[in-house]
Specification:
The protein has 1 helix and 8 strands, in the order E-E-E-E-H-E-E-E-E. By secondary structure, the protein is mostly beta strands. It has a single domain, classed as Pnp Oxidase, Chain A (Roll), CATH 2.30.110.
C-alpha cells in the first residue's frame, strides 16, 4: 500500500435489495463461516481440520425511515411464505484502486423489527440474515 488514502471507506457503500436501492442503509456485513471437522492423523499428535461446509450470514444496518422491511417481509411471513431476496453490496471509494460489488442470493432475514424506538435517539434497525450463495460482480484490483 503506497498511501492511506487507498484504504477503502464504508462511506461509499451502497446496498440494493431485489434491485431497489436502499438509501437508508448505513452498514452491511457479509460473512462466510467455514465449518470444520477435526481430523486425527496417525503418527502425529497434532490434529488437522477439514472444511465440511460453509455457513453464509449477513447483517444490514438501516436508519428507520419507512416500513420497507415490514412491507417486504411482514405479511408474507404471516401468510406462511418463505420470502427470499437478492442483495447487492457495493463499495466504490473514489480514492481506492477500484470498486467492489458482491451479489448474495437466497437472502432470508432472521427476524423483523416491528417497533424499536427511544426518545432523543434516531431510529436504527439491524436486520440479520442468512443467504445461500455469493458472487463477486466486480473485484478491487491489486496494485
Amino acid at each position: 500500500m503506497d498511501s492511506a488514502k487507498r484504504v477503502i471507506s464504508g462511506t461509499w457503500g451502497e446496498v440494493w435489495l431485489n434491485g431497489e436501492y436502499v438509501s437508508e442503509c448505513f452498514g452491511c456485513k457479509l460473512m462466510a463461516k467455514f465449518n470444520k471437522e477435526k481430523i486425527a492423523r496417525c503418527g502425529k499428535m497434532v490434529q488437522d481440520n477439514k472444511v465440511t461446509s460453509v455457513e453464509c450470514t449477513g447483517t444490514v444496518k438501516l436508519y428507520k425511515t419507512s416500513s420497507r422491511m415490514a412491507r417486504l417481509i411482514g405479511e408474507e411471513i404471516k401468510n406462511g411464505k418463505d420470502v427470499r431476496f437478492t442483495l447487492i453490496s457495493k463499495l466504490d471509494d473514489p480514492d481506492a484502486y477500484g470498486a467492489e460489488r458482491v451479489s448474495v442470493t437466497g437472502v432470508s432475514f432472521d427476524d423483523l423489527t416491528i417497533s424499536d424506538w427511544e426518545a432523543g435517539k434516531t431510529g436504527t434497525i439491524e436486520s440479520p440474515f442468512t443467504y445461500s450463495d455469493y458472487t463477486y460482480l466486480d473485484k478491487i484490483p491489486e496494485e
